[in-house]
Amino acid sequence: MPRIPVTSRRGLLFGAAAVSAGAALTACTSNEPKKAGTAATTAAAADDKPGTPVTIGFAGPQADHGWLNAINQNAKDRAAKYSEVTLEITEGSNDTAAQIGQIQTLINKKVDVLVILPADGKALTQVGLQAMKAGIPVINLDRVFASPQAYRCWIGGDNYGMGLNAGRYIGEQLKDKPDAKVVELAGIDNLELTRQRTQGFDDALKNYPNIKKVARQAAEFTVETGQAKMAQLLQAQKQFDALWNHDDDQGVGALRAIAQAGRDDFFMVGGAGSKSAMDAIKADNGVLKATVLYPPTMAASAIDLARALGQKKGVGGMSELEIPASITLYSAVVTKENVDEYLPTGFI
Questions:
Q1: Which residue among 172, 224, 257, 258 is buried most deeply as judged by most CB within 10 Å?
Q2: 326 located within any domain
Q3: Total number of domains in the chain
């Protein structure tokens, strides 16, 4: 894609069998609140003792968005934790041709393992296949390649689960309110991830017959579009009870529009887990009451998985000798009751 709008940063699940990261995978990011630490140290690896030296090539995104920057930082910080790990990191790119060239350079350097968050999973599938054929295992991070042969392990977020848990939270808050109304500020509609989030949200609301979704507006995961599209929603909808916004970065703009309109007659649920959203939830002095996580700590877990692959180890807490083929992270709901536990993982 040309400058992939911040939009396609999150991956599409192509139906690969997924293992919940909520299981006791100590080599991957834990969603257990009490284990939350700094963004890059939220979990211990399968074996923290130095082992065989491993060179990990990391090809990530251009850090033009808070979540994307957090992805890159989590990878760097996690690799620095291990004295035997060398991280060969490319300059992040949202241009598919540029990223293919960067990955081919890492292949030519004969790194031991590759961690790739592709600018476009489908477009970069061939370079993933090239790495695998060269004997370099690939950890496919979030935006999935079109072929499972292009990676050894996929790890990423759960877009359907985000919508489902957002809908459940809103449903529980409004379950006793007759004729409750909700609105949705989505991402870009031509992205499968946006459709998955909306589908999960709609499926959850089916369990609450008293709640009706009265409006939906698609934004573009930016502050500016969030503000503009939210202003349109507010103008069109003079009364509603809850708002689900797919992304905390576009949510900054949405909150500006809400403040400018002087509206406080509803509550808002965000998505992704930015620090600014968690700070607002903790302050509890505005409409934002919760956010549904899409954890950038997945990049730290990808480094753990790459290290385990390079050292021919499995995942701590599991009996298998090999790492899983697929890991889907859980989309926890952060509220004022648990925000302190998740704040260390909030991205800027």
A1: 258
A2: yes
A3: 2
